Amino acid sequence: MTPQQIHLVQAIRDVVRREERAERTAELVAEALRPFLAVPDLLREDQRTGDPGSYTQHVLHVEPDGSFSVVALVWLPGQRTPVHDHVAWCVTGVYEGVEHEQRFTVHDGSSLVPTQQVTNPAGDVCGFAPPGDIHLVRNACTTKAISLHVYGADIGTLGTSVRRTYDLPVRAAV
Ligand SMILES: [Fe+2]
């Protein structure tokens, strides 16, 4: 880890050890993450590398007790996630570029209903916790986008924060 990453992990650890309810933990971690989005040397060059095949996850830290993980996601232009939800609370912060998030609810277990849309430029943070955390995230700019994600889970073991993906038709918003 870079020295700045060590500082970031310590700030997150201080919050997670308070053992608040998940939504509150996510809010506090978001505030802890926010100032690091303006640190220019936070990531090593290899942690800023994208892959033309898919958005790329670089694991920066997994807490030894599995209570949280920190990753950098690198998105090349046009790259996106599937519609998905999460195993635990999540915090995202845009480090470079612009990301767009489309949130959904599931209708009758058979279709997706779009709800809020959020466009997040560099510096924006967002924290949330299941349930009601179904979304799709994409790079919304013409250059590389990088975001930092903190998950209340052991990504070293799980490999991903995704609980499940939703391959359902999207119906008009009501
Ligand atoms: Fe997500």
UniProtKB/TrEMBL annotation:
InterPro entries: CDO_1, RmlC-like_jellyroll, RmlC_Cupin_sf. It comes from the Bacteria. Gene3D superfamilies: Jelly Rolls (2.60.120.10). SUPFAM superfamilies: RmlC-like cupins. Keywords: Dioxygenase, Iron, Metal-binding, Oxidoreductase. GO terms for molecular function: dioxygenase activity. Pfam families: CDO_I. Belongs to the cysteine dioxygenase family. This is Cysteine dioxygenase family protein.
